[in-house]
Amino acid sequence: MTTPTMPDLRQLRYFVAVAEEKHFGRAAVRLSMTQPPLSQAIRALEETLGVELFARTKRSVELTPVGVDLLPEVRRLLASAEALRPLAQSLARGESGGLSLSFVSTADYGVLPPLLRDFGVRHPRVRLQLTEATSDIQLEELVAGHIDAGLVIGPLPPRYAAQLSWLPIAREPLVIAMSAQMAARVEANEAATSKATGRAGVEPGEAHPTAAPAEWRDSPISLRDAADAPLVIFPRRLAPGFYDIIMDCYGAAGLTPRIGQEAIQMQTIVSLVSAGMGVALVPQSLRNLRRTGVVYRPLSEAVPAIETGLVWRTQAVSPVLAGFIEIARAHAVAPRRA
């Protein structure tokens, strides 16, 4: 009979029993078997490994130096093998494993933190791999199978509808981000207009009564008040749906924006606004990005809502991903009415 090229777990358990009992008879009793097949199994293990594990005499059985060094390694192998069943069951329940998740920069200031917090509480043993990426890159990575899910800005392009599933999580209005200097000029104009019309207003240089915190003003302004300022925006190829919404806001107000600068990341866009390079229309949650010299204000015009949602491959939902989707559904906005 051909000797196996690899030892099996049964032989390794026999080896540990003989090593601990230092006696084939006692080891056989412990293993609920007779001595001859145990001795044969140990001989077969030694032949498979090509080494002697025991020094045998008529009165004693002792481990050879190789056997002494091998014993702790065999114990670790057996422990790992015994852990396979509970590990497999844990993976099947989504309690352990890994999840690769990408997200747009705006999600980091809105939907992402509460999702990660709740997921971490319910699935503490899952390894999360987080990467920041634009919506277009995330969709390509999803289709290629390089990530499990992504947080992107909707809507989902129709060409992905057959492969990807989409769950809207947050819906929020656009607000305008402007430099503190420009905000001061706008507020001065508002104060002058209020004074001319006999309404209570804010005197130039005074703090706005609703300014809490200083980077946010509750009172809306018209997009026309910032019509002369250049628009800081990202390239259309990165998120055409979002880009077009911003352009439509200007169009609905009868304005044609003057593109001043383009940037890929929202943090960069806000930094350019802080430097006085122009204004930007951003999701309202981005006001959580506190940048010195930037003021956020709502718009008086009717603005469409920006949707941020979870997207994943429809036919590739692992137990871990299913758990994340469940949490995302709990955070999701109510279905849009017709």
TrEMBL record:
Keywords in alphabetical order: DNA-binding, Transcription, Transcription regulation
Domain spans labelled HTH lysR-type: 7-64
Tell me which GO cellular component terms the UniProt record holds: protein-DNA complex
Protein's name according to its UniProt entry: Hca operon transcriptional activator HcaR
Which domain of life, per UniProt?
A: Bacteria
Per the record, which residues fall in region Disordered? 194-218
What is a GO molecular function of this protein?
Answer: DNA binding
Q: So what family is this one in?
A: Belongs to the LysR transcriptional regulatory family.
